[in-house]
Amino acid sequence: MSLIADRNPPLRSSLVLRRKRALPKTPTALGRTFTTITLGLPAVIAFALLWEIAPRAGWINALFFPPLSQVLAVLWEMIVSGQLADHIGISLERAAIGFLLACVTAVPLGFLMGRYSLFEKASDFLVQTLRNTSQFALLPVFIIVLGIGEASKIAITFYAAVFFLLINTIVGVKSVDPLLVKAARSMGTSDWDLFKKVIFPSAIPSIVAGARLGVKTSLFSVIAAEMLAAQSGIGYLIQHSSLMLETDRMYAGILTLTIIGLLLNYLLVAGERRATRWRGSAESGPN
């Protein structure tokens, strides 16, 4: 029987191919995103219709909740005039600077705390104390100390993002397989090579997950800061329009912020999947 089986390798390979073809294909990240949007589209359309009909039918006061078509018309005017692009650019610039400063601070500190237990014990209480203090509660402090200029807004975005990155970096470093570290040490690997070739690649998925949370929190924090003390930005646009009872402009700013948040979410999800793709392929093993 074994001789017969060995003399027919094409038969065995064809059976393997049939089994592989029978297995369901895993949908790609783009396919999953498209499916999610498609399935959720009817609910969004229904909400948009309700938004348009309710003020026109008199169910709610159109002064405080204008129809969607009016909001979109104002939004288009702001896009054409370039006013909206200016506000978006200023808000994103503030959030980006704060987030990048958080990355430069949190990632090295997270590697030190995750790798050296004595350093973690000495600094953990301070980190936990600051982490459990809301950035919104500290916003008046930042304004008093740093003024109403750019520094206070960048500081609040930094504070909002730094702890997400720090904690996730620590978790990523601690989740490195000890066998990999021992194997690298047994081969005489230096501390720098150990960090570069073992610890950092293994911690990347956790760092990217922290970055995903940090980016969104930075943006939302800078919007709150702009509402309180600013003369530009999406937050200022929303707050100023609300005070002037220009509710169509206010909702246009809110809608813009929603669209930016959605785009950032899908971009960060795609980046996170790309960063963790190697882990899935490693776990599945060779076919």
From TrEMBL:
GO terms for cellular component: plasma membrane. It comes from the Bacteria. The lineage of its organism: Bacteria, Pseudomonadati, Pseudomonadota, Alphaproteobacteria, Hyphomicrobiales. The keyword DNA-binding does not apply. This is ABC transporter permease subunit. Belongs to the binding-protein-dependent transport system permease family. It is found in: Cell membrane. Keywords: Cell membrane, Membrane, Transmembrane, Transmembrane helix, Transport. GO terms for biological process: alkanesulfonate transmembrane transport. Probably part of an ABC transporter complex. Probably responsible for the translocation of the substrate across the membrane. Residues 88-268 form the ABC transmembrane type-1 domain. InterPro entries: MetI-like, MetI-like_sf. The chain crosses the membrane at residues 29-51, 57-80, 92-113, 133-149, 156-174, 218-238, 250-269. The keyword Transmembrane helix applies. Gene3D superfamilies: MetI-like (1.10.3720.10). It is a multi-pass membrane protein.
